[in-house]
Task: structure prediction
Amino acid sequence: MPEQEVLMAVERLDKWFPVRKMGRARGYVKAVNDVSLQIRRGETLGIVGESGCGKTTLGRAMIRLTDVTDGRVVFDGQDITHLSEKELRPLRRDMQIIFQDPYSSLNPRMTVGDIISEPLVFQNMYTPAERIERVRELMDLCGLDPIYIRRYPHEFSGGQRQRIGIARAIAVNPKFVLCDEPVSALDVSIQSQVINLLMDLQSRTGIAYAFISHNLNVVYHVSRRIAVLYLGRVVELADREDFKTNRAHPYTKALFEAIPQVGFDEQQKRAPLTGDLPSPVDLPDGCVFHTRCPYTQPRCRTEVPELREIDRGHFVACHLV
Amino acid sequence: MTDKQPLLKVRNLCTYFYTDEGIVYALDDVSFDVARGQTLGIVGESGSGKSVTALSIMRLVQTPPGRIVSGTVELLGDDILKKSKKEMKQIRGGKIGMIFQEPMTSLNPVYTVGNQIMESILLHGDCDRKQARERAIEMLRLVGIPLPEKRFGEYPHQLSGGMRQRVMIAIALSCNPQLLICDEPTTALDVTIQAQILELINELKQKTGASVIMITHDLGVISRVADEVLVMYAGKAMEYGSARDVFTQPRHPYTAALLKSIPNLEDDVERLHVIEGMVPSLSKRPAGCLFNPRCKHVMPVCREKRPALTAGPDGRLVRCFLQSDAIEKEEAHA
Result:
């Protein structure tokens, strides 16, 4: 990948949380383990996985909402791994976030206008009069009627609130927006409205998204490339088309086959994955997936598989591929 | 929809909530049957009345503000809306088992899971504590929990989400119910765990011969498990028929639009189909067809008159003027 095309690069990133007992660290929750990936300008990288796989932690580490245990985060050519809060401040203009829950992520005591203009105030952009103009423009862009500028969040439905959250995120014209389960809390008929809005904004402004979701159908629809996480590790990373026809990792296959699809042509019974996710405090040795994998070999129990490129741009971490 | 007597026969069920802001028509004139050994899927968005349907059948609607205004719910010909509170206690968890969405909050955190399964067995069955204990362990084994003797003495927080939902299923099935109502049983679970639980419910249904009502907003789940499907919108049934027919050839514009609006791995589209607008408030419902403000095929008559739920030649019920001119009778309780 040419260097100037890469907007966000994560290199061998680790994020461990200490588990304390009696005030001393007795072990670590290894939420993110040796993850490397890149996001190009203007593209959407989907990050999927089940709960506890580290997808949210990875996202937060990317935009430095959390500290990093080891590894590097490079944003727009600049190493941001160890920047202080103060040094990060100007960079926040270029990286924003949309949260899952449109109810708790908006301050109930602020009007919509104040919510959307807050990042503009924070970044010292525009004069107060221009800000109001900009907020109206943003509301219009996100499908909200600007006459509601003085209303409070509780006066809006879930889908409209998510639109407010989106308007806030794009207010400062960021280059990168982390979308952390942006449609999971919404009704089916509202989800498609918000997904279309996000995609329209991208084609208009060229924002890059990291789109985190447990809903594979949604991720598949919005992404150009997809990373599948399992227990803090990337097990497969490829272009979206590969996930339709060329799934390589046994976990990816099981995950995609487990989604109930509407329709009856392809409803042949498949053996669902057995067992639960192992505890992230006590990760299995070798391949993290070997405890549930139907094809486990002796080697998988001892040796961690590296993420290897099996085809152009198609990376898999499995001994058997 | 079958000639034989159905297990559960719900007719003209209306459940309204009387609030300060007016009457909320949460469930308005809903009728359906559940045949023996069959699965009925009830699908709808939030506020469509699907959970209130379950609560009404179990007589668990909070009163006030809610009230079952009219209708009948017959379990093998016996109207359970006429039962006393005491009789209802025997039916709930006895003939009808229920699984709720959130396995974390529907289990009591201060009792062991074994204790909670035993509670239900002791309440409904004729047995002593020792037999109940054995039965509880047997149930844990049945729902696929490894080391059931050990798990018996554990507390809910020691189990994963999928395991907790299995415990809920064990409780619901412990008294051999004839009907199992599942309200969003897998919504809080991961997809690989969801596949396990759906498989388990199907398997147990075959083993025990129970009927299932599966309530969910996930059309994929419904199409995997349901024989028949009831599509609800704003408290009313919009379409009702065999799951295969409804999903492959939807007749109501709402069903069709809903099916088109979910992204799908098979049909790769550039832009998702959108249903504009939002679900109407149930206390200030639009005049005419409840779906008319969002419908792409709206006609003048849709804005004035309420369409009736009418049967097509194949028995499929649809509430739409595109299918039939029939107008719904005036609401008796408005």
About this structure: The two ends of chain A are 23 Å apart (CA to CA). Chain A has ten helices and twelve strands.
